[in-house]
Amino acid sequence: MTRKRRNHSPEFKDNEAFAAAKDDKTITELTQQFSLHPNQITTLKRELIDYATAIFLSGSSGKKSTEEADKLHSTIGEFTMENDFLTKVLER
């Protein structure tokens, strides 16, 4: 009988990748702790290191982009309301 594929949450992967990056435990200890294959641990550690540099190189945080998106959505809403109002006035 085959084992059902497990899907791990991003939080689980995050914790595991940070534990692997600390290098205070061996890969074998981490595989026993998290019940993962050593290749998965190595892959998550490599991805953490690769993407960590990309985060600092981008220069913009996710918070800024969501604030800008909210501001743009409110502006779009205002323009839509003005457009609807003006089309109703012009129809008269």
Summarize the structure.
With about 90 residues, the chain is mostly helical.
What does this structure look like?
This protein is mostly helical and 92 residues long. The chain folds into two domains: 8-59; 60-92. It is built from four helices and no strands. It has helices spanning 10-22, 27-34, 38-58, 62-91. The longest helix has 30 residues, at 62-91. The radius of gyration is 24 Å and the shape is elongated.
Shape: elongated
| Class inferred from helices and paired strands | mainly alpha
Give the number of helices: 4
* Fraction in beta strands: under 5%
**What level of helicity do the residues show?**
over 70%
Compute the separation of the termini in Å. Answer: 73 Å
Largest sheet: none
| Average predicted local confidence, pLDDT | 87
What's the domain count?
Answer: 2
Rg calculated over all Cα atoms: 24 Å
- Given as residue ranges, the uncertain stretches (5+ residues, pLDDT < 50) are none
The number of strands is 0
Order of helices and strands: HHHH
